[in-house]
Amino acid sequence: MESVLLKSGLSPAVYFKAVNDILPEEWMVWEPETVWAEIEELTGIDADSLPDITRNKIMSYRMAHNSSAPWEDWPVFTNVALTFSGVVPNTDTAQVLSPSQVAWAITKLRDIHPDWDFSIPVRSFAAVMLYNDGICWVPGILGDLVNDTLCRKILMA
């Protein structure tokens, strides 16, 4: 599984599973430096050779397992969405998400905790990102999250 960590462009779930297969369960609460040091020690993979985006995907996916922050806080949701989509976020600025990044993040987060609900601020942020891209209604589970806000936004425009 360790060779998976050296491949680029994979889903955060794939990297997360690879780390779960390498490290003991306690890694879920370790400091990042400890995670990388243990991966290096157990696999021989030079931790510095892991791309930043791979590290970010692993840590974002782990954080989503351990915390409800991506469901409750739109800035955290934004950074997780960017990371899951293969973009290293700039945490110093508010960033725009594409519709596909919104949909991918919601899909991946629902895979992690299917019963958790998104807060009104996260739903509203997702709706604004879609609206800014010209989308005024979406089907399925994404629509269940954003269509009320999209309809209000259109009526108020």
Q: Report low-confidence residues grouped into runs of 5 or more.
A: none
Let me know the largest β-sheet: none
Number of strands: 0
Task: Quote the beta fraction.
Answer: under 5%
Helical content (DSSP H or I, runs of 4+): 55-70%
**In the residues, how many domains can be counted?**
2
Structural class designation:
mainly alpha
Ends: how far apart?
Answer: 51 Å
Rg on CA atoms, Å = 17 Å
* Mean pLDDT value: 92
* Overall spatial form: elongated
Output the number of helix runs.
8
The sequence of SSEs as H and E is HHHHHHHH
Topology of this structure?
Layout: H1 12-22, H2 32-43, H3 52-66, H4 69-72, H5 74-84, H6 99-112, H7 120-132, H8 140-156
Summarize the structure.
It contains eight helices and no strands. Helices cover 62% and strands 0% of the residues.
Description:
This protein has 157 residues and is mainly α. The chain has two domains: 1-66, no CATH class; 74-157, no CATH class. Helices cover 62% and strands 0% of the residues. Helix 3 packs across helix 5 (74-84). The longest helix has 17 residues, at 140-156. It is elongated. The relative contact order is 0.11. The mean pLDDT is 92.
